[in-house]
Each structure stands twice: as C-alpha cells, then as structure tokens.
Amino acid sequence: MKEQGWPRIALVTPVFNSGPYIEATIESVLSQEYPNLDYFIVDGGSTDGTVEVIRKYEARISGWISEPDRGMYDALNKGFARTTGEVMGWISATDLLLPGGLAAVGGVFRDLPEVRWITGRPSWIDEGGKTTKVGEIPQWSRTPFLAGYNRYIQQESTYWRRSLWDEAGGRVDDSRRIASDFELWVRFFRHAPLYSVDASIGGFRMHEASLGLQTLEECHRIQDEIVEAELKRMPGTSALKLWRMMNRAAKKVPGVRYAWWRMVEQPFTKKQSTNRAAVIEYRGGVTGKWCLR
C-alpha cells in the first residue's frame, strides 16, 4: 500500500494501567500497515508495566506521553492536539482495530469528499481478542438518534474529518468520565450526516473491567441529559420532546412495552428512514472505489 492518495489518519490511544491489553491494541494498529498514519499514545501515569510496553514501539509511532490526567477524555484532547492527520479517531487500550479497518477508513474519505464522518459495522471481541459478533448496518439520521431510537454509535468504528472536529468545537468534553463520546456525536450531527460503512473497522472488547459496562445505567442518564440540553437549543422540537417523554413512560410498563414498540416506535422510526444517510460500500474488486449505495 503506497502512501500517495491515502489521507493522513490521526489515531489516538488513551491508556491507564491496561497492561494485559495494551500490546494487542498497539499491534492491531501497526499491523494494518496503513501508509499515512499519525498514531499517538497518551498514558495517564501507569504503574503496571504499560509504559514499558509502549517504549517497545516508540520508534514505530508518532509519539507518546505519560503523565497524570483527568481521565480518558482529557487524554484524548492531549493526543489530538499533538496530531496533524486530516482524518481522526481513537482506539482505547482494551479494544482492537480489525484487519483492514484503516484501509476502509482511508479509502472512504479518499473516494467520497462529501462524507465528513463515518461508522462501520458494530463489532465485538471477547477477553482473548476473538471477534464474537458483527452487527447489522444501522442507518443514521439526527432525529431518531435524539429521539433515543438507537443511541449506540460504536466509538471504536467511528472516524471523522478534522474540519468537522474543528467546526464542532475542536475537543471532547473532558468534564465527565463517561458518555462524552455520545456528546461529541450530538455536536457532529449539528453539522453533518453520519454514514454507515459496510465494513468492520474496530472491535469493542467485552471484559469485566469495562467502565462502560459497569456504569451503563449512569451512562444512559447522562445521555438523556445531553439530549435534553440539545433539544433546548434547537427550534421546533416540542413534538420530539413529547415523544421522548411518552416513550420513557411506556417502556416502564411491562404490559405496554411491546405494544408501544410495535404500534408507535416502529412506525416512527420507519417514517424517519427517508432522512437517513446512505450506506457506503466497496465496489469494483481490486481497483474499485467506495461508493454510496
């Protein structure tokens, strides 16, 4: 794979005491052999051997630092500020890039200049790094996302242009320790549609120490607060606010939950489907291109 024509990808790994996983994460990045990669690792002052692992790879990455921080999102802001890639994303220290993931990302942004952010097929890996599930391709639009129909944009598979990052504020909200990726997606939706790519890009590792899995209920509460704040700044959202209120109430009643989903939620999301961004797929074999389906 030659460097010419491939956009520079700024990839950041935030890490703190992830000794059992960090080497596999780094290897999953470097084994991509993507020719125009700006890979930076930000360690929060690990004491479990993580730093020694990073040092093994320092000649093959753009750079790294190790110093105390205020959590993952603070680390991300430090890392992105030290990169120059025109396409951006991050892979956490327990997760993995899947084979060919960066080639898909680079190819999409090279072939489709109108696309500003993307996400691949949601994929999951087990404790040992084996892919256990690859999900369906969701199609996205802002209204169903804010309505709560599907709040899970998989961070490990999501990349964007730096121009969108700058337009949306140029940083991740590091005032909290969870759900700030969701808040970033809310800001991105103000400026550009999200396109799904028919490719596996990154995998989320299912393991007992996962902060996201441990704090899922709290994460949902924060996500709801973020959406409510977003709706307050948007005009003409009275119907959407009412729908969210009724949706929450209906789902709390076991005997009503299924009927609500069948008679109200499904028709609502189907009605919104005409506004969803197209899926991106690869066509044409070895010399093909990424195209809108």
Give a brief rundown of this model.
With 293 residues, the protein is an alpha/beta fold.
CATH architecture: Alpha-Beta Complex
Number of strands: 13
Number of helices: 11
Strand count, sense and barrel status of the largest sheet are: 7 strands, mixed
**What percent of the residues sit in helical stretches (DSSP H or I)?**
25-40%
Structural class: alpha/beta
Overall radius of gyration: 19 Å
Widest sheet, order of strands: 3-2-1-4-9-6-10
Number of domains: 1
Q: What would CATH call the homologous superfamily?
A: Spore Coat Polysaccharide Biosynthesis Protein SpsA, Chain A
CATH topology group: Spore Coat Polysaccharide Biosynthesis Protein SpsA, Chain A
Measured by DSSP, the beta-strand proportion falls in 15-25%
Distance between the termini: 26 Å
Protein described:
This protein is of the alpha/beta class. Helix content is 39%, strand content 18%. It has helices at 22-30, 50-56, 72-81, 101-111, 142-147, 162-167, 180-189, 211-214, 216-233, 238-251, 254-272; strands at residues 9-15, 37-43, 63-66, 87-90, 96-97, 117-119, 123-125, 131-134, 158-161, 195-196, 202-205, 280-283, 289-292. The protein has a seven-stranded mixed beta sheet, sandwiched between helices. The chain has a four-stranded mixed beta sheet with strand order 5-11-7-8. The protein is globular, with a radius of gyration of 19 Å. The two termini are 26 Å apart. The model has no long low-confidence stretch (mean pLDDT 92).
